Amino acid sequence: MGEHSDSQMKIEKGDYGYVLEDVPHLTDYIPNLITYPNPMRFNPAYSVVKQYFVDCDDTVPERVVVHKNDPRGVHFRRAGPRQNVYFLPDEVHACVVTCGGLCPGLNTVIREIVCALYHMYGVTKVLGIDGGYRGFYSKNTITLTPKFVNDIHKRGGTILGSSRGGHDKSKIVDSIQDRGINQVYIIGGDGTQKGAAVIFEEIKKRGIKAIVAGIPKTIDNDIAVIDKSFGFDTAVEEAQRAINAAHVEAESAENGIGVVKLMGRYSGFIAMYATLASRDVDLCLIPESPFFLDGEGGLLEYVEKRLKENGHMVIVVAEGAGQELVAQCNTATAKDASGNKLLKDVGMWLSDNIKAHFASKSHMTITLKYIDPTYMIRAVPSNASDNIYCTLLAQSCVHGAMAGFTGFISGLVHGRQTYIPFSRIVDHHNKVVITDRMWARVLASTNQPSFLRPKELMEFQNAEEEATSQMSQLNVDASNSSSSGTSFECTSLFRCLTCS
Q: What are phi and psi of 149, to 5 degrees?
């Protein structure tokens, strides 16, 4: 999946530094399309709602904390139903596909896409693509109806099956064209949405009247721009069970240590939030915050100190933490079908190093228990909070598709549903900002040191000085970058508070 969209982002500028990063529309490449009254006008469930339809000028700002003299900055188009639509219910032939790893809420999103199409817009032809992207050309489809999907939200996983890789642009678009599909709903992470962007470009190139809409899925919460991804709340809640078990094991033994490995390839959000929620964690390790084992101020010294003080401790480590240290022991690098580097087991590596450290100390015997709940968390059904969020994401996506928008994802920005261009989320990951207050709260909760070596501390201080000098120019740079179809991002080692 090495291809990338080279089309320029749609940019609209207004007064006082207003910039709209708009999403593509069918009319951008197919002129003179007919519009129809939105069927929801005649739906009794929505007839009593005051101003239910979204105004065409409604937008949502990317940044809500600004100074009084700042330009208005970047905005995204607000999601929701429009007065007019570009499809008649009888002509819609939609499909839904899930790609990548499992995540709580997948079945809820599938269910709500189907129910929104049926009950809000009267669409009756919806297919499920079996087995991810390769299902478009190598597997059977599943007919999806409200009856078929009625209770799937109570199950984990995805009823459509999922896979990594299998992205063949020509075969996929050929299948879409041959089947007469004109709305494609793609649920997956950043790699999946990169593929969706390529599919959109090929459909646009062929001049097909077909929508490509994405719903971003990543349990790690590392999708850029949006507030959070679905399944994240459930993952944090389920992680508590593992942390509680580790705490019980550690507390019940002399010098007991419980090590819990949680998801987080590039971003440590699950580990951070689970640590804050638990209050039983003594050490939290995430990919964004470097650490070292040996010597003064190292992790092993801290573990020993904590055991002497409390007699037990709990360690939470994100799967992507300390990979540069683990790689020193094993330099082999393999990748999965999506192109992601296969990570070494940092939890097992950390546990072995802690055991080896205390094995050399005859006066101090430890009992260490290692818990890896990764696949247990991924496979559970979504909780109530995520079910509601999945419903809003799915319905917003359907509204956008019926209104003719394409090449977008549906996502929450500062509590408002928005449509975001593919190009804004596929280039970089959302990461924990270790200069932000939330990470400071974690350090205050665990009482752990920062583990920054003098060299890293110097880099941190230099980055802070650079960030301070950037603050006055941040909004100007963001506006200039947006006008050229790109997004401004700090180049310093640690992103500044203004960027968080």
A: -100, 10
